Amino acid sequence: MNKNIAAVACGAAALTLGLTGCGASFEGSGSKDAASAEQLALHEDDPWAFEISADSQKKAEGELADGVYTGTAPGMEGNVSVTLLVDDNRITCLETTQEGESQSRGGYEAIRDGKYALMIEEAQGSDIDTISGATITTAAVKNATEDALDQARAAAQPAAAAQAASE
Length: 167
Known about the structure:
Layout: H1 2-19, H2 37-41, E1 67-74, E2 79-87, E3 90-98, H3 108-112, H4 115-123, H5 135-166
Antiparallel strand pairs: 1-2, 2-3
């Protein structure tokens, strides 16, 4: 009987010592390989930290009617809207907004900080680069920009037809 108690006690001691190495090494993590967001931020490059400079002489391709156009497209948790000012085939992004997107979504900061607006102006259209970690939001921004540009193209058609008829 004493041998059984000693064996159980030794097994419990070995199990206790063995499990002490499984504790989290970072506060709030589930394993010693996990790290907090703050610790990762110290080692990871910021995906939104890049310079964008738009050429002030570059113009959009195709015929666009002057005016203000707002396009929308679905994002992760709501619609993304892009408002463009078209003046002499030059695009200026007045606003990018999101409805229902949360801070945990990849493109939240890029919309809030105006990165997408600068990218649209640089491209003079919807052909913008995808931001790492924000693939769905970037696609929504592209589609919303294309929606606004489709409106500008459609508005240019009657003007072009009227001009051709008067010649």
